[in-house]
Specification:
Strand order of the largest sheet: 3-4-2-1-5-6
Radius of gyration: 18 Å
CATH architecture: 3-Layer(aba) Sandwich
CATH class: Alpha Beta
Order of helices and strands: EHHEHEHEHHEEHH
Number of domains: 1
Number of strands: 6
Structural class: alpha/beta
């Protein structure tokens, strides 16, 4: 796989703890996290990332204090409205994955407008997961395919296509090449479970608001030194395989 098609996924963890540690309200950490997203989106294409999937709000996050949830949803609306023009100008396609029926009408409208305005972007595909649960998406895809299973065998490719269809009607997405989680935790938290089957995992102590271009550069360098064998035997690093064509 060429580096330009690399799919990176990030769990944006540690915003609230970052703010608390500085004596600030948790929402200040989420706002700082949005700035970190802006930095990442500017940097990622230059470093060979073609698809960027960000875990912004899980289905379990509804259990957080209502005031924090309301602030987060408002921040999503603000981000989408502010960044749509910049994304379109820089060739970035923006889409949202996850449930939409529980989102505020204003957020759903902002999502539709952003997706419509940026649909022709080819430089980077930015995917933001909001009200997202990988297990729920897998169940929906299985339900979607249940009527067809009796007529023809189910394959991984068909299931991947079904996942794309239940994910807001988006096209199938290549598997995740590398997954990064900030904030010190070391778990997937119901994020892209199907797509991360062979992802290279990176866990950082650093909170998400402190994540920058140098962190991504370091992670990509380490990623390209790893040997991705997909269950087979191999001795070359990713970088060596790319150099060999």
């Amino acid at each position: 796989m060429q580096s330009t098609s690399l799919h990176a996924a990030l769990i944006l963890d540690g915003n609230g703890r970052w703010a608390t540690g500085q004596g600030l309200p948790r929402v200040a950490g989420h706002r700082a996290g949005a700035e970190a997203v802006r930095r990442l989106v500017r940097t990622a294409p230059e470093l060979g990332v073609g698809i960027l999937t960000l875990y912004a709000f899980s289905s379990d996050n509804w259990h957080r204090p209502p005031a924090e949830v309301t602030a987060l949803l408002g921040l999503f609306i603000e981000y989408l409205r502010q960044e749509t023009s910049a994304c379109r100008e820089h060739g970035i396609r923006l889409s949202v994955i996850g449930r939409r029926d529980r989102l505020p009408l204003a957020l759903r409208g902002a999502i539709r407008a952003a997706e419509r305005a940026t649909r022709n972007g080819r430089r980077l595909w930015l995917r933001i997961a909001i009200d997202y649960s990988a297990r729920d998406q897998i169940l929906l895809a299985a339900e979607h395919l249940s009527a067809e299973v009796a007529r023809r065998p189910l394959t991984r490719e068909r299931f991947t296509t079904a996942l794309g269809q239940v994910d807001g009607g988006h096209q199938p997405v290549p598997d995740v090449d590398l997954l990064v989680r900030t904030g010190g935790e070391q778990r997937l938290s119901d994020f892209l479970l199907w797509e991360c089957a062979y992802a290279e995992l990176f866990f950082l102590e650093k909170a998400w608001p402190d994540f920058g271009a140098e962190d991504l550069l370091h992670i990509l360098a380490e990623y390209r030194r790893r040997d991705r064998r997909f269950g087979a035997l191999g001795t070359r690093s990713i970088g060596e395989a790319d150099a060999a064509g």
